[in-house]
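Q: I have 639 residues here and want to know how they pack in 3D. Can you give me a structure?
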Amino acid sequence: MGQLKKIVLMSYILSAGVSAYANAFEIKEKQKADSIVTIVSVENNAQGVFPKSAQAVLEGLEVNGYYRFITNYRDMSVIYPHLENNKRNIFVGDDSQIPQLMLNIKGFASSKTSFGTDLYMWAPMTGLGQTENVKGLNLGVNLFGNFNTSFGTFNVRTGGINWHLLSPFTFQANKGYNRYSLFERNPWDPNTPSMDSRYVDFFNSGAINQDQRWGNQAFQGLIIDGAQLPNDFAFSLMTGKTQFDGGVLALPNNSFGGKLTKFYKQHQNAISANSFNNNTYLDSLAKNTTGFSVHTLEITHYIERLKIWAEIGMGNTHINQNYTKYGEAISIKLAYPIADQFPTEIHFYRVSPRVFNNNAVFINSSIQQSVQTNSNLTQAVLIPVSSAILPIGQLANNRQGIEINSQLNFGRLKNSIGYSSSMELENLSPGITYSHAFNSLALSRFWRWGFPSNVGPYKNLNKIYRNVFETLNITDINPATGLPNQKKYFNTLEINSKYKTILANKDLYLFYLGSFNSVQNFSSMSSLKDGGLLVFTERALVRNYCHQIESYYVINPKLIWNNYLSFERIIANYQTAIDVQSSRPKNQTGYSFATGLDIQLSKSAGLYLRQRWMDYQDSSYANDQYKGFETTVEVKMFF
């Protein structure tokens, strides 16, 4: 029996060996046949449908971007007359012309040369069907080059739209002092690895993550930067056009400028010569032109811990080679930590009404620039915004003043405080403009698709990007000229307080933002009985007070509960326009309460829910009121 088992086992092993050899022979013969077929196929097919080896993959190409879904539902019990038949509205998509899908493509021609482009897709869902499914380029196609030489480092950018800056008075956007609400999300807000990092960063440093556009202006054309040059020099040159000067119009226009910088004291200090200029044709026959020029000197100098920054220059405008006189542009900042722990900055500025540059940190309040015409299109390059109530840090021409900003920290309580006192240089405008901070985004959604002027129940509202500003006219004017008889004086106080505590073993952040403004036809310091720093009495042409309180409760690293409460009062006196029926000036009161959740769906995706209730009324102007709520749902994913 044992012998029989051995025989059976040997037979099984022999059978398995023969089978394995047969399979191996069959595979080898099949591979040889496939190889012959491949060769024959390649010989008989010039296109090489069946190549012998895999082709090399495409290298040196990067693709990233984002997807953003946002929908908004509005339900109003009281609304402006133009929306009376549309009190309930559901809207899918961002009406701020922000794409829903963006692809950023970057390719490398070599280690020193690359290109960049993008592709966006946007379906605004206006009811026009397939024709509204928009896709195309956002920033265009750009070519970049970075070259290191023994003489210096040079960077070249040309093509579509690039983000760049020179100096505040020549080519730069206003950055402000980081006093703002975090509750409403911006289209460009990123996702963060931890959902609470947005609020942690704001509490710790007073700022949040911003993209490359922050503080920069858009420019299309050629930009050449040089750094690490002999004797510690650097330069920047640019020629092309901006979004404000010509934009997408086909008429010839050109903006050009640059800066030359000399560093000293181990690159800690610097002095620069800056210039920015524009020439624009007003008609297709190239007979009428307009433009402006700004030239400045800029210095940054440290004396131990005292930082001195100044930019001093001049600017003018021209129409058809007729040049205005130059006006002064002066900005001086002194920064020093008082008592070694309270960083404080004092800012003196003066910008002449003859200085114009809509690519700088100051806005135009005095010069009505000419318009361009292109076929049937007429586009105003820039319309003056009258005498505006502005946040601290935002300058205007035809104004001089002083700003004081300080950071006062006491343990977990951090306070950013700013005060501004300014006055007009010439009495050029009978209007005063201001924004409604507490419902600015919700109010802007009352007018979709575009930025209309002179809208609202009393034709005194103007929509701008994600905001609306209101115009109030004064009555003490010269009948012959239509200009006010007196100059206006402006006072602003801003307080941003932040506090962190623990509730049920979870982090809780509490933020307060207060803004107090007054405009009058006399200096507030000349009449201390009216308030001194601010005018709190009815002698002020208009008083604007706004309080915003926010809380952010970190339930866990992937879930944040947000809450928002605001109150606003705007009161004008009888030196301003009054309502025909009530015979009273503006007297506006607004409330807003909101709640929401930040939910982390994955490492690169987030869900953001917002629910806002609004109640606003002008007791003097019967039609200026609205009441209701809106719900916003946003999903954003980066890849």
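Q: Anything worth noting?
A: The CA atoms of residues 92 and 552 lie 27 Å apart. Confidence is low (pLDDT under 50) at residues 1-48, 371-383.
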